[in-house]
């Protein structure tokens, strides 16, 4: 039961806290209302967990909205505002965030080549900056269970287009596991279990059980 030392996190080919940045775009009421490719409640739970995980592992987060300042759109839903309220936010008029000066400047200033992307909708505000980022030599990881499209067909077609261009699909739990990497890394494991347990489903229940077991062990019961 001896793990190897932690690999060079800046040069690791897998995602690590030191080689990646999380980008979250347009989780606003009108965009969410039009999602038909997956369960909206689960999608919201997943993107909230995604942001919490990025904070836990100290990954830079770039948050962007569209048309809030112009009055044409509403601020992000409360669940997103709660986890992003301490972050800078870049409001745009462009559908493609890559065509906004402040947003693009934030991406370049982060200095990371691995971009973890979550945006609504899949076929527009996720696809366009993803394709531009790939063209400029970035690696893009699409968090497929935290995004959605206006129809299952639109969502799937957009994912296929981005994948063919070189984007890599990943799930929320897959990403969190890739960042944690080793159960022995105790500085993050307790909070990581709490985040995953909040996702519900079989894995969430299993993680919730592990948390209870750990608490019982501490109490000596």
Report on the architecture of this protein.
This protein has 221 residues and is an alpha/beta fold. It is 48% helix and 14% strand. The protein has a 6-stranded parallel beta sheet, sandwiched between helices. Helix 3 (78-84) links the parallel strand 2 (61-66) and strand 3 (89-92). The chain is globular, with a radius of gyration of 18 Å.
Number of helices: 9
- How many strands appear in the DSSP assignment? 6
Low-confidence stretches: none
Quick check: average pLDDT? 93
Strand order in the largest sheet: 3-2-1-4-5-6
Q: Percent helix among the residues?
A: 40-55%
Q: Please give the largest β-sheet.
A: 6 strands, parallel
Distance between the termini: 26 Å
The geometry reads as: globular
Strand content: 5-15%
Q: What does the radius of gyration come to?
A: 18 Å
Structural class designation: alpha/beta
Secondary-structure element string: EHHEHEHEHEHEHHH
